[in-house]
Design goal:
single chain, rod-shaped
Length: about 70
Amino acid sequence: MSDERLVNIETKLAHQDHLMIELNDVITNQQDRIMKLEELCSSLVERVRSIGDSMPGEASQEDPPPHY
């Protein structure tokens, strides 16, 4: 194998290693954002439920239907 060919292979490998590190960083950042968004969504769901529970509802003021 010629020296030039070996240098080309090593250069490509170095670029691939660098690209893999960059992609890993992107994936890690995306995972962090996803986790924060999931926490925010859960918090919002709980808030909406608590608001719904605290509001007087028309259905709770009505008598149940006769088949109950």
